Amino acid sequence: MPVRRDIPYNEGLFFITFTCYKWLPLIEQTNSYDLVYRWFDYLKKQDHRVTGYVIMPNHVHVMIDFVSSPKKINTVVGDGKRFMAYEIVKRLKEANKTDILVMLEKAVTAKSKDKGKNHEVWEESFDWKICETAEFAYQKLVYIHNNPCAGKWRLAADITKYEHSSARFYISGKHAGYEVTDVEEIISTKWKDQEPVFQRPAF
């Protein structure tokens, strides 16, 4: 999956992924799930809508419906990553994780240091895909929700038991760690005239 830096749109439903530097489990190590939720809160205040997510130990998948705004989507995501990075570093310092801090400090390029960056918490770029059909949007939601129980991950007995995911809402109607907007609200307005009509999966 290619990583593209610039999003050539200023609104739309997007599947976005950003990852900790070198896939280190920095979110888990600093218990920083709340930082992601705080970023979601900021997005909501700007009228963007979070429709699905999973926060893993070392990466985040999220589906966001961005409304048109003066800020580019890349800037919105970049600002969120910077806020979370600052707080993660603060927690690493409080926990005396000197070895990790040194690693993150050494990873910063000279160019980034000149701009004031001291630690490389996230991989520099993030992955994004625009959702242009209901089928694609639901495909990405299914992928997001299966993450905690897929591959090497065994973070819960089943996907509804993982607290930092919207899977529980889409399966049972009850929110887990964060209250999301049902993607059906976006689909019913964006693609109501799409043919053939795509049926919501049972997850």
How would you characterize the overall build of this protein?
- It is built from eight helices and four strands, in the order βααββαααβααα.
- With 203 residues, it is α+β, with helices and mostly antiparallel strands.
- A hairpin with a 3-residue loop joins strand 2 and strand 3 (59-66).
- It has a four-stranded antiparallel sheet, sandwiched between helices.
- The chain has a single domain, classed as Transposase IS200-like (Alpha-Beta Plaits, 2-Layer Sandwich), CATH 3.30.70.
- The protein has helices spanning 26-29, 33-45, 73-94, 98-106, 110-114, 134-146, 167-172, 183-190, and strands at residues 12-19, 49-55, 59-66, 127-130.
Which helices and strands, and how do they pair?
Layout: E1 12-19, H1 26-29, H2 33-45, E2 49-55, E3 59-66, H3 73-94, H4 98-106, H5 110-114, E4 127-130, H6 134-146, H7 167-172, H8 183-190
Antiparallel strand pairs: 1-3, 1-4, 2-3
Helix pairs in contact: 2-3
Summary?
The protein is α+β, with helices and mostly antiparallel strands. It is 39% helix and 13% strand.
Following the backbone from N to C, one meets helices and strands in this order, namely: EHHEEHHHEHHH
Structure classification: alpha+beta
Low-confidence stretches: none
Characterize the overall form.
Answer: globular
Beta-strand percentage? 5-15%
- Rg, Cα atoms, Å: 17 Å
Oligomer: single chain
Percent range of helical residues:
25-40%
How large is the count of helical segments? 8
Rounded mean pLDDT is: 91
Instruction: Spell out the CATH superfamily.
Output: Transposase IS200-like
CA(first)-CA(last) distance: 24 Å
**Largest beta-sheet characterization:** 4 strands, antiparallel
CATH topology: Alpha-Beta Plaits
The first-level CATH class name: Alpha Beta
Strand order of the largest sheet: 2-3-1-4
Number of strands: 4
